Amino acid sequence: MFVAVVQMRFRLPSHSLKEKRTIVRSAIERARHRFNASVAEVDDLDTAEFATIAVACLSNDARQAQAQADKVTGALEDWRLDAELLAVDSEVIAL
C-alpha cells in the first residue's frame, strides 16, 4: 500500500483570517468532493496572507497514488488564479 502526500504553500489575496478561511475552506471542500482525497489546511493557520494545504491519496500502486495527488494539486492551482503557489513538496510512502 502506498500513500502520496503533497504539501502546498500559497500566498493569498486576503487581509483577514475570515477572508482566508473562506478561500481555503472552499478549495478544500471542492477538492475533497471532486477527487475523494484527504485534504486539509496544515500550517499557517493564524496568518491571513499564507495557507499551507496538504493532500493525501492512498493506493495499492505508487504511480496511481502520485497521479491522483498530482491531479488534486493541479486543480488547486487552477481554481485559485489569484493565489500564488510558493512551494510544493511531494512524497510517496510505502506502508
What's the total helix number? 2
CATH topology name:
Alpha-Beta Plaits
Q: Identify the CATH architecture.
A: 2-Layer Sandwich
Mean pLDDT: 90
Oligomer: single chain
How does the major sheet shape up?
4 strands, antiparallel
* Proportion of residues in β-strands: 35-45%
Give the beta-strand count.
4
CA distance, first residue to last residue: 5 Å
Low-confidence stretches: none
Computed CA radius of gyration, to the nearest angstrom: 13 Å
Q: Structural class from helices and strands?
A: alpha+beta
**Domains (count):** 1
Order of helices and strands: EHEEHE
Tell the overall outline: elongated
Helix content: 25-40%
What name goes with the CATH superfamily?
TT1725-like
Strands of the biggest beta sheet: in what spatial order? 2-3-1-4
In the CATH scheme, the class would be: Alpha Beta
Q: Can you give a write-up of this model?
A:
It is a single chain. The chain is α+β, with helices and mostly antiparallel strands and 95 residues long. It has a single domain, classed as TT1725-like (Alpha-Beta Plaits). The protein has two helices and four strands. The chain has helices at residues 17-35, 62-79, and strands spanning 2-11, 38-43, 50-59, 84-94. The chain has a four-stranded antiparallel β-sheet with strand order 2-3-1-4. Helix 1 (17-35) crosses helix 2. It is elongated and about 40 Å long. The chain starts with a strand and ends with a strand.
Task: Quickly describe the structure.
The chain has 95 residues and is α+β, with helices and mostly antiparallel strands. Helices cover 39% and strands 39% of the residues.
